[in-house]
Amino acid sequence: MHLQRTAVALAACLPFVGMAQDKPAEPAPFDLEWNARLRHESVDDAAFPNDSDATTLRLRLGLRAHWGTHWSALLEGEGIAATGDYDSGANGRIGYPVIADPQDAELNQAYVAWKSDRVQAALGRQRVQYGNQRWLGNSGWRQNEQTFDALSFEAKPSKQWALRYAFLDRVHRVNGDDARDPLARERDLTTHAIEALFVPRASMQWRGYALLHDDQDVATASTATYGLRMNLGEGPGFALAAEYAHQSDYADNPLSFSHDYWLIEPAYAWQDVTVRAGIEHLGGDGRHALQTPLGTLHAFNGWADKFAGATPPGGLDDRYASLVGKAGCAKCEWILAFHDYRADVGGRYGSEWNASFAFPVGSKLKGMFKLADYEADGFARDTTKLWMQLEWAH
């Protein structure tokens, strides 16, 4: 999307490697930015007497202003139209499975930014994404994305190093401003996010991070997380991702806990196919487990989202394998994945198949079919989800 390609949107995606050497062309005083996404989602969850079906259309519209050499601002709103029989979290249909895409209209981003060749900063409501978004992200799969009232800062002292800091004052969650549960709408925070990236060569990346999360509305959600991630490999051939983090209680949290997170993920790519396998461990002790309340949850532990709300008290071991490939055209992509879920303390939770096919329709329209099938074995109930989607980007 154009919003994500625009360099002044600090919180979008950090271009960690490389720095512009040529003076960029002067931007227009104003840019109009928009995208639209039409989606049908159906959910068959054995825990509910009814199936859910939701058809939603999201329109996101933004006006970006540029002035002087370094300054810019973005004002962006979004509206979501919805129809169907489903529980959106705001419409009172509690006899149906939740599809967290409520009908809504609200401010999505509103910030002022300053940018030079090596430093940039933004103040206001903004998209914030760190690393692979496991710990801090925008949950962009949902029609109403997660944004933050924040002060964010980024510095690139050299081609090998990048440093980021964000102070998060409030999180605006995907459930929207009309969610039945006020805590599902937004939370007041006093949270510090820190990230340092070191790229000694193109095929190796080290990322250290700290997330000091102080939830002012729910004290038991406050955690301190410190971690290190390594990515090795580029292009065809072998690649490896490895990560370790430690999480403990923080600020005024009345609980006392200490949990480990680790991931090991080897992969091999040849021609247009990548095979990947891995184990992701979220520690738990039977009473409490490691949590990722500000992350992009749908991208992890299966698309059925059985573990997206919270990690079960027994923790989670996700053993997974996937195939990713192209199908007949450079911009087509298919994904097939399998997950086996087990507790860190306790037995087995279940298993899940995921499959998707994405394809272009013209130059600016992209289609997608997507499926998630979860088979319960001690946790939650059998669930099947199906999505059909078209997305336009300006």
UniProtKB/TrEMBL annotation:
Residues spanning the signal sequence: 1-20
InterPro entries xref list: Alginate_export_dom (IPR025388), Porin_dom_sf (IPR023614)
Record keywords: Signal
Domain Alginate export: 32-164
Protein name listed in UniProt: Alginate export family protein
